Amino acid sequence: SSFTNSTSSISTHLTRRGYGTESVPERKVAVLGAAGGIGQPLALLMKLNPLVSRLALYDIAGTPGVAADISHINSRSEVAGYMGEEQLGQALEGSDVVIIPAGVPRKPGMTRDDLFNINAGIVKSLCTAISKYCPNALVNMISNPVNSTVPIAAEVFKKAGTYDEKKLFGVTTLDVVRAKTFYAGKGKIPVADVNVPVVGGHAGITILPLFSQATPKSNLSDEEIVALTKRTQDGGTEVVEAKAGKGSATLSMAYAGAIFADACLKGLNGVSDVVECSFVQSSITELPFFASKVKLGKNGVEEVLGLGPLSDYERQGLELLIPELKASIEKGVKFANQN
Ligand code: NAI
């Protein structure tokens, strides 16, 4: 990923010599849901990112405290907190990247789809505001079910006449982060060297890690690959159960969200060869949205990369996931057009 092989990138360069700002463009990032379990550590990580010059932290409650706290960190960006709908416009105005971790998380026994009724409405209203106040921003959708919230966002933007398919991203980076960690652990490979593409969607069997394309190669058995695949698909549930009612992944998600936003910023800034997996509008399968490797550039998506060669097991997984992912996409589209 761009994060691991970024030795020559602007951000590594700046990190090494301290937080200089000249020659790095001004970039505003807004986090919606910034006082939440993901929002707070994500806000912290974005405050540490030298590519950010302004950081807007928005939530329906709690942002003055989070913003005051984070603003004392001596890194580049200016931080401001915004609370309540009447301040949402100000939070969004001028944003280059908007990250959305707003909404309720899972409790044990819940699927991501069980969150639909609450989160669909939240995402719809936030996206309506985005189309009004920062229609050109790259949108990083974290709120679940991502398989449906991304199509909802697309429909809202289409209705507003602001939809640009190059600028809407479902954040699936945590699936990649998990696949890398689990693969490295099983294969006894240094994790920093590992790359694993994860395609499909972001829920259960729609999460399809392509371990046949993982690098470096390892000699894991078919059974081990099946176990790794299941663990990646159930990684979120592993955390939900361990937290026993106190929510879902927040810290690893904040890390993953920060990596994805950093990749978006690098793309905007013209860094070459920035590639991350993301759930985007796509024509690489029959489905209108699909996660795969995506090349990021000055306008967002520069190229949606194909699936590459699949093993028989992966091809089977792909066939199995299509109907579920299709239904989740359609559910989102239907919601956006009915409500
Ligand atoms: P949380 O409940 O700790 O935080 C959510 C925050 O959103 C709260 O601060 C709440 O006040 C805020 N919020 C609610 N309505 C809002 C609105 N209309 N505008 C702005 N903010 C609003 O939940 P957590 O753990 O931070 O999870 C957030 C979302 O991220 C959930 O939907 C969860 O399922 C999803 N998630 C996604 C992952 C992914 O891989 N894409 C991984 C983990 C969680």
Automatic annotation (TrEMBL):
Gene3D superfamilies: Lactate dehydrogenase/glycoside hydrolase, family 4, C-terminal, NAD(P)-binding Rossmann-like Domain. PROSITE patterns: MDH. The keyword Mitochondrion applies. Keywords: Mitochondrion, NAD, Oxidoreductase, Transit peptide, Tricarboxylic acid cycle. InterPro entries: L-lactate/malate_DH, Lactate/malate_DH_C, Lactate/malate_DH_N, Lactate_DH/Glyco_Ohase_4_C, Malate_DH_AS, Malate_DH_type1, NAD(P)-bd_dom_sf. Residues 172-335 form the Lactate/malate dehydrogenase C-terminal domain. CDD domains: MDH_glyoxysomal_mitochondrial. The active site is at H202. NAD(+) binds at G33, A34, A35, G36, G37, I38, G39, D59, N119, I142, S143, N144, M253. Residues 28-170 form the Lactate/malate dehydrogenase N-terminal domain. Its EC number is 1.1.1.37. Substrate binds at R106, R112, N144, R178. GO terms for biological process: malate metabolic process; tricarboxylic acid cycle. One of its GO terms (molecular function) is L-malate dehydrogenase (NAD+) activity. It is found in: Mitochondrion matrix. It catalyses: (S)-malate + NAD(+) = oxaloacetate + NADH + H(+). SUPFAM superfamilies: LDH C-terminal domain-like, NAD(P)-binding Rossmann-fold domains. GO terms for cellular component: mitochondrial matrix. Belongs to the LDH/MDH superfamily. MDH type 1 family. Homodimer. NCBIfam families: MDH_euk_gproteo. This is Malate dehydrogenase. It comes from Trapa natans (Water chestnut).
